[in-house]
Structure formats: C-alpha cells, structure tokens
C-alpha cells in the first residue's frame, strides 16, 4: 500500500506542502494503488485523471507517488507512445484487431501505467488512444493520466469531438477525476525576496552571445572543438554547429523552421542530453507550423529532463505571450520557466570548464 504520509514526507524534502486539490489527488492515487482493495467492490475506480493549468503540480504529485510504488509500472509521454505503437502496428501480423493485439502485448506485465501530459488533437491519434485505453481497462491495468485538459475538452476540434465522446465517457466512468485548481505555478521558482531565480541558460539579444555559447559548450564536452557538421536524426539530415557526446548546438532555422516532426525531436533527445538552440528569430514563432514544432521540441526535452540553452533576438518566453497558433503554448511557456530555473535538475553532466576552439564557427 502507498502511504499518504510517505508522500507528504517526500514532498516536504522538496519544501512543498500539498494544497487542497493536490491532497485530493494523493488520496485518490493511494486508494488506486492499495493492493488490498484491488478487485473488491470498494475499489470503485481503475484510474485517476489529473487535469489543470500548466505548472499546478500535476506531474510533481504523480511523479512523487509513482517513485514510491513498488509494483510493475511504466511511465510514458504522448509523443513516444504514438511513435512506438505505430512502429509495432507496422510490424504486427494481420488480425481482426491488430491494435488490440499490439496494445495487449505492450501492456504485458504492466500493473500501473502513468501517461504524463495526456492530450488528443488529431483524429488518427484519437482512434488509437481510444482503443488502447479500452484495452488497458479490459486488461485490469491501473492507469494514471495527467493533462492540461478536462476529459470533456479533449479533442476540442468540433469536427471530430463527437467521435471521441465514447472514450471521454469511458474516462468519466472508470477514472476518478481531480481538477488541480491551485493558484501557484510550481515552475516559476522564486527566492525568499520573491525574485524569480534563473540560471544563465537563455541569452538575449543575440549580440554578444557567441562567447558565452563557446564557453557553455566547453563546460560539458571534453572534446570541445567546434566543428560544423551534418548529423542524422530520424533518417533526416540536420546541420549542426557542433555535436559532442551529450550536447548538440544547432540553429533554430534548421531545428524548427525546416519541415520536421516530433519523430526528429524524439531521435535527437535519444542521442543527446542537451541542446543549444542558436539564432532564434522570435518573429518566426508567429508561424503556426514553426510554433508547433517548437512546442513539440520543448515537450520532448522536458519529459526527459534534458537541458535546453537558447540564444534569441529577444526573451523567448516574452515572445510566446499571446501566441495561439499551436496547441499547448501555455504549457511550453510554463516549462521554459522551469527549465531556466535553479531547481531544474537536467541529466546533462558538466565535464570541465574550458572554452572550445572557435575553429570554423564563424
């Protein structure tokens, strides 16, 4: 059984006391994960659905509980899940229910499935997710979903929303739904004086940023010479300013202005632990396609706790204010705040402090 007091102690180590909605989620999660009640009439729900504005502590709470659970468990992000299941579908033998077969194989030996940042914007993804959730519930898998959207607001496109309503109804029947409605944004880190505390990770304006970026690259790469090259990600070419063992340095145009998909960013995140995004022209974020790629890119790096460094013509978070040309921009703004803060513990390992060679960089 997962003990709510153990959760409280784990949160206290992070100087966090759960607010009212967070405590409701903790209680619901502990009830869901109480093995003594599993399969009894007392165990009403098979899942917990946590939703609310970005930064309200959904992932914070669920990650804390998840870490304490000793059962067979799996945590996955939306983009990786869609890619992996589609790959399995291509490889799976033909059958009357290929998606069901793939879903059951994927869920084998998984007692708890944690789906972070659950969202549905595409009708093809909606059909896949609907059948997968139906199969997971039938298999008895316990499921936790976090989302910026309430169940009724999933797949909001009026052209397709009605076709997703059976899945929404299934969520409402089988999940305890918790709205995170606290006022605090946990990704906005402040010191005792109330001043936001940030690391020197985002640089603006562009003038004078080359020297800090040279130094930055050298701090993380033992072989710190900067050589422009062509990398391959997801089977496509990506020109880069420099590529080390754990850090890659790339221009924004090549990363987000050129036609790319979330598959490119998944492949990039699987190869490197950090990315320097250089020469970001914030005017380009007003283009819907560019903005959507940037949202995908930040999502994927954040999910893996990778490091992000940005050199832009003006502060990138300020440039995102008021933009609504892509899905989930508010989540991106919130995540960028955390990724810039002192509390963001990326998995990038600092190797040495030395400036790399400037050879061929200009």
Instruction: Give a quick account of the main beta sheet: strands, pairing sense, barrel closure.
Output: 5 strands, parallel
What's the CATH H-level superfamily name of the largest domain?
Answer: P-loop containing nucleotide triphosphate hydrolases
Mean pLDDT score, rounded?
86
Helix content: 40-55%
Radius of gyration: 22 Å
The CATH architecture designation of the largest domain is: 3-Layer(aba) Sandwich
Helix/strand/pairing category: alpha/beta
For this structure, the CATH topology of the largest domain is Rossmann fold
Features of the shown structure:
362 residues, alpha/beta, Rossmann fold, 2 domains, 5-stranded parallel sheet, 5-stranded mixed sheet, 40% helix, 17% strand, globular
Write the layout of secondary structure elements.
Layout: H1 4-12, H2 20-32, E1 47-52, H3 58-68, E2 73-77, H4 78-91, H5 98-107, E3 112-116, H6 123-138, E4 142-147, H7 161-174, E5 175-180, E6 202-203, H8 210-220, E7 229-233, E8 236-240, E9 242-243, E10 247-251, H9 252-257, H10 262-271, E11 274-280, H11 288-303, E12 307-312, H12 316-320, H13 329-339
Parallel strand pairs: 1-4, 1-5, 2-3, 3-4, 6-12, 10-11, 11-12
Antiparallel strand pairs: 7-8, 9-10
Task: Tell me about this structure.
This protein is 40% helix and 17% strand. It is an alpha/beta fold. The chain has two domains: 4-180, P-loop containing nucleotide triphosphate hydrolases (Rossmann fold, 3-Layer(aba) Sandwich), CATH 3.40.50; 202-339, Rossmann fold (3-Layer(aba) Sandwich). Helix 1 crosses helix 3 (58-68) and helix 6 (123-138) runs parallel beside helix 7 (161-174). Mean pLDDT is 86; it is low at 190-198.
